[in-house]
Amino acid sequence: DTGVSQNPRHKITKRGQNVTFRCDPISEHNRLYWYRQTLGQGPEFLTYFQNEAQLEKSRLLSDRFSAERPKGSFSTLEIQRTEQGDSAMYLCASSPSRVAGELFFGEGSRLTVL
Amino acid sequence: AQSVTQLDSHVSVSEGTPVLLRCNYSSSYSPSLFWYVQHPNKGLQLLLKYTSAATLVKGINGFEAEFKKSETSFHLTKPSAHMSDAAEYFCVVSDYNNNDMRFGAGTRLTVKP
What we know:
The complex is a heterodimer of chains A (about 110) and B (about 110).
Chain A (H helix, E strand, L loop, with lengths): L4 E3 L2 E4 L5 E6 L6 E7 L6 E7 L2 E5 L7 E4 L6 E5 L8 E8 L8 E2 L3 E5 L1
Parallel strand pairs in A: 2-11
Antiparallel strand pairs in A: 1-3, 3-8, 4-5, 4-9, 5-6, 7-8, 9-10, 9-11
Chain B lengths: L2 E4 L3 E5 L4 E3 L1 E4 L5 E7 L6 E6 L5 E3 L5 E5 L4 E6 L8 E8 L6 E3 L3 E6 L1
C-alpha cells in the first residue's frame, strides 16, 4: 500500500505521560500536514511542513506539542505532559505541491488520555 | 480568516433519491473550496474541488457542486443516492496558498434502503 501511513493507530495513556505519533507520507509528496479531529467536529489544522521546514503552526499547537520532519520524509508529532483534553484523532495528510489543496489523508492515530 | 458552515449536521435520504448537502463559506480572498468524504474507519478522501475555474465542478462517484459567489455557497449534490454514499462529508475552504484549510463540522449522510 503506497498511501499515507500513521502509527500507532490507537494510543491509550495516563495524564501527564508523553506520546509520539509517526506519519509516513506518500513518497513523492513534499507537503505534510497534521490535523486534530474531535468527536462531532471537522479536522482542525495544527501544522504544515514543506519538505523539512515547518512553515505554519496553529495557535492550537501549544508549547506541549512539537512536530518534526527530519530530512523531509516521515514526520513525528509529540505531545508532552498529556491532558484529558488532548484526547482526539490526530490526522496526517500529504500533498504534492503542484496540486492545489488535494490532501491525501492517513487513517489517523486515536489518542485516549485517562 | 476563512471559514465554512455546513447547514445540516445530519441528512437522511432514500436510495435512488437526490442528495443535497449544504455549505456556506466566508473568505476575504477568492477562495478555493473542496468537499471531502470520510467513510467509517477510513481516511478522508477528496470528492471534488473548486479553484476559480468552472463554477460547476464534477467529482467522483457522481457528485457535483456549484460555486455561487453571490450566495457564498458551495452545495454538494448527487442525482441518485446509493447505499455506499453513507458517510460523513466535509466542506473545506482554503486561503490563496492552500496551507490553512478550514473544515466544516461535517454532515452525516444516511441512505435508507
